[in-house]
TrEMBL record:
GO terms for molecular function: hydrolase activity. SUPFAM superfamilies: alpha/beta-Hydrolases. InterPro entries: AB_hydrolase_fold, LYPA1-2/EST-like, PLipase/COase/thioEstase. Keywords: Hydrolase. This is Phospholipase. Belongs to the AB hydrolase superfamily. AB hydrolase 2 family. Residues 55-191 form the Phospholipase/carboxylesterase/thioesterase domain.
Length: 207
């Protein structure tokens, strides 16, 4: 079962709405601490949370069928959260789809398989889902959509090659991709990554 946590501004009043997806094993308090390091003042945050704190059971580079049906259910939860925002009258160009770790992988998989013209997509240490040598087809209709991918070069949970593959795939589709790779192996959101998120938010349309 998926519950949705909400904080920040009201949906219709925020400068943006951030649909925020948690990482593997992150309970509500842990994920809130991750999100709280981001510069989200004035935004509304919707954070779907899956029972058990894990969106799908196997590594994100496993064969897709090993993560079903959980992966499909997780993607449906993302769709439902986005639809709630749209039903509140918020235009899609003011919606940011953001995830950390497993949530970043889920955000990218959603954007690749059900492309929408979000205000931005932010993947903090994540890549698309599937085994090496496989990838969704480049999505249509996403030219110019800002996509931020931030990671560490030596991250042991999310290999850099997969983040690069995702960046290349989205670049080929015409998205405005920013790839931020920091040295080290920390699996955290750094001040530099948070600053990059601020840049993304500042570029969103207003009004």
């Amino acid at each position: 079962m998926v519950a949705v946590d909400r904080w920040g501004a009201e949906l219709s009043e925020g400068r943006a709405v951030v649909v925020a997806l948690h990482g593997r094993g992150q309970d509500r308090a842990t994920f809130r601490a991750v999100v709280d390091v981001l510069p989200l003042d004035g935004t509304a945050v919707l954070a779907p949370h899956i029972d058990g704190d894990t969106w799908y059971p196997e590594p994100f580079t496993a064969d897709l069928e090993r993560n079903e049906p959980a992966l499909g259910e997780a993607l449906a939860a993302v769709d439902a959260a986005v639809q709630e925002v749209l039903d509140a009258g918020v235009p899609l160009e003011r919606v940011v789809l953001l995830g950390f770790s497993q949530g970043a992988c889920l955000a990218l998989q959603s954007f690749l398989t059900a492309p929408r013209r979000f205000g931005a997509v932010v993947a903090l240490t994540g890549g698309h889902v599937g085994p090496p040598g496989t990838a969704p087809a480049p999505p249509d209709g996403v030219a110019g959509v800002p996509v931020l991918l931030a990671t560490h070069a030596g991250d042991t949970w999310v290999p850099l090659w997969r983040v690069q593959e995702s960046a290349d795939l989205l670049t080929a589709a015409g998205a405005a991709v920013t790839l931020l790779v920091e040295p080290g192996s920390e699996h955290v959101v750094t001040p530099l990554a948070a600053s990059a998120v601020a840049t993304v938010l500042d570029a969103l349309p207003t009004g």
